[in-house]
Amino acid sequence: MNKKQVPGKKKYNIFYKIYRRLRYLKYIKRKRKQVLREFKKQESREAREVKLKEKERLR
Predict the structure, then answer these.
(1) Cα–Cα distance between 22 and 30 in angstroms, integer?
(2) d(C-alpha 50, C-alpha 52), whole Å
(3) What pLDDT, on a 0 to 100 scale, did the predictor assign at position 30?
(4) Structure confidence by residue, pLDDT tens digits, 1-59
(5) Cβ neighbours of residue 16 under 8 Å, at least 6 residues apart?
(6) CA-to-CA distance for 24 and 17, rounded, in angstroms?
(7) Per-residue model confidence (pLDDT) at position 25
C-alpha cells in the first residue's frame, strides 16, 4: 500500500488548511482596514473642500 508521492504535491495536512484559512482572514482584515482608511481620507478631503468653498462664499 505504498503509493509513490507525486513531486510538488503537498502531503495533506489539516493544520496547513487551518493555517491557510487564518492567513486568508488576516488578509481580508488588512484589506478592509486599508479601504476604510482610504474612504476616511476621501471624506476628510471633501469636507475640507466644502469648508473652503464656504469661506470663499462668505468673503
Answers:
(1) 12
(2) 5
(3) 95
(4) 456 666 666 667 888 889 999 999 999 999 999 999 999 999 999 989 999 998 888 87
(5) 10
(6) 11
(7) 95
What's the Cα-to-Cα distance from 30 to each of 23, 26, 38, 41, 51, rounded to whole Å? 11, 6, 12, 17, 32
Asked if 16 contacts 10 with a C-beta cutoff of 8 angstroms, the reply is yes
Residue 59 has which C-alpha cell? 468673503
Under a CB-based contact definition with an 8 Å cutoff, are residues 27 and 19 in contact? no
- 46: Cβ contacts below 8 Å, ≥ 6 apart: none
CA distances from 53 to 42, 49, 56, 58 (A): 17, 6, 5, 9
- Read off the pTM: 0.50
